[in-house]
Amino acid sequence: MKLRNVFLSGVFALAVPMVAVAEAANLDQLLNLVKEGQARDNAEFEQRIAEFQGSKAKQEQLVRDAMAERDRLEALSADKEEQFRDNELVVAEKQAQLNDRLGSLKELFGVLQQVAGDTKSVFEGSVISSELPGREAFLTDLIRVAGATSELPSIEQLERLWFEMQREATYSGRIASYNADVVTPSGETTQQQVVRIGGFNAVSDGKYLNWDIESARLIEMDKQPGARYTDGITALESASGSELTGFWIDPSRGQLLKIMGQSPELGDRVDQGGVVGYIILALGAVGILLAIWRMIVLNIEAGRINKQMKTESVDEKNALGRVMAVFNANKKSDTETLELHLGEAIAAEIPRLTRGIGWIKIISVVAPLLGLLGTVTGMIDVFETMSLFGTGDPKLMAGGISQALVTTVLGLVAAIPCVFLHTLTNNRSRALIMILEERATGILARQSEQQQAKAA
């Protein structure tokens, strides 16, 4: 403390002369200024000493107060710890008494909790929840109560659980009509009239609906199954009372409908064939139309030939009539010359009777080759995909192979009817040609007999 006072005095003593030198005009004034500064500094120093002594006593009192508060809190903490140990013993004793009183009921509540959980899962996945929304909230509270140790389920809760389970079983055997929110494929939610068939399916406006567990809403399938399965929806929606109608149900509660919706239809299969597939179908259509046209022409020609066979008058609007016209024009010729003229007339009729039939045969041969071409190019794409993505995904390879084989199927579909129609039209034309040849042979035979009779 003395050293500190000496230090402070030295500092003030050095500071005052510096100021005095700046203000004094002579040495006497400087001396007086130094004396006055020392006196003033001593007074300020004594004042600071007094303030420090007073502040020190106050800080010591605060420390004593803090230590007293600490001792009080430590004593209170010790009391609370002892009280906590006593309460733990009481709680353990009460818990043992509760377990003794519950007995087999505790096991019953465990089973009740399990049954409530299973029932909740059934309700969340059941399409009946679209007609009875919010019923699983009660089961959530019941599961919490049944799992708690300090709270017991009430009789009303147990009775309601039984009621909800019985109602689920009852509604599963009904066909009901009601209004519900339906999410369309575009994402819009609309209020629609829904027909529910037990716990299997729900339909609306001629379309199947799926129950979505996550959103707890009915969602319209973006891709409906074939018309074979959707034709009965309209009849079901318009049925009333005890009227019976046929309808397809999904026992898997929507899974089969999703699979059927993902299955490609005829148009999708054709699209898988690509450009080659469309070329094959176009060729098949041309072959079939060509065969139909030739069958119509040949049948008309056959009718005219049959009519010509029943009369001696010559009608040059049919092949046989034109052959007979050649005979009439060359009656006076010898047999060899007449044979040449008749052969020439028949040869002129053959192109008319066989016109277009060769193209049907060509199409029946080219269509499978185009199908094979599409298959080969498709398999090349499959192997390129395998080289890029590996063989870890069988679905990727199976889909590519399926698309590659579609062209083969389309080629066979186009070739089989063309082969059949080619055989049919070819046989029909050959039958008409044989009639002309038979008639020409008969004419030559009669001409030869007449000439022999004249010679004799």
List strands and helices in order, with pairings.
Blueprint: H1 2-23, H2 27-102, H3 104-124, H4 136-147, H5 155-171, E1 175-183, E2 189-197, E3 201-204, E4 207-212, E5 217-220, H6 227-238, H7 255-262, H8 266-272, H9 274-309, H10 319-329, H11 335-354, H12 357-389, H13 394-455
Parallel strand pairs: 1-5
Antiparallel strand pairs: 1-2, 2-3, 3-4, 4-5
Helix pairs in contact: 1-2, 3-4, 9-12, 9-13, 10-11, 10-13, 11-13, 12-13
Q: Can you describe this structure?
A:
It is a single chain. Helices cover about 75% and strands about 5% of the residues. It is α+β, with helices and mostly antiparallel strands and about 450 residues long. The chain has three domains: about 80 residues; about 150 residues, no CATH class; about 180 residues. The protein has a five-stranded mixed barrel with strand order 1-2-3-4-5. It is elongated. It contains 13 helices and five strands.
